[in-house]
Amino acid sequence: MVEDKMMAHKGIGDIVDRSKQRIEEYYHPFNNVIRSNKSSKDDKKEPFIKNHKRNNINSRNKFNRLNEVRQRHKQEEIELKRTKMNEINNRKDQERKYQQDLQQLEVDIDQLIEEEKDMNDEEFNEDEMNAYERELEEYLSQLTISN
User: Fold this and answer.
1) CA distance 34 to 43
2) What is the pLDDT along the chain (147 residues), one digit of tens a residue?
3) Could you give the CA distance from residue 7 to residue 21 in angstroms, rounded to a whole number?
4) Which of 4, 62, 75, 115 to pair with 46, CA 20 to 30 A apart?
């Protein structure tokens, strides 16, 4: 148990020492010795391999992103074409509807003139019929009075 406390104390002491070292490096950067990356050939190979792997992964990610952008662009183009075709079709449908409405509203002038003449003839015939009915009623009333 005493050993555990000492180990814990030693662990805490290491943490404190390390944090002091980091503070020293942070606030006094020029006091530290500049380390060279050219210490050994093994050190050179390992970062190169890591960078190569990173580049390979990055190039795959880049390839995937480019494919995504291409696909998105294709989809946007397809959507634009669809909307354009829909607009054209809607416009044509509306023009057809307007043409049908126009044809329904168009009236032949000669037909209108004939209808007007017929209406005038009917009015004239109605006047004649009314006059004839009045004459008949007068005749009938005279007949009933004389009987």
Assistant:
1) 16
2) 555 555 555 678 889 999 998 888 888 777 766 655 555 544 455 555 555 556 666 777 888 889 999 999 999 999 999 999 999 999 999 999 999 988 887 777 788 788 888 877 776 677 777 888 888 888 888 877 766
3) 21
4) 62
Amino acid at 138: E
Torsion of CA 134, 136, 138, 144, to 10 degrees: -150
pTM listed for this prediction: 0.35
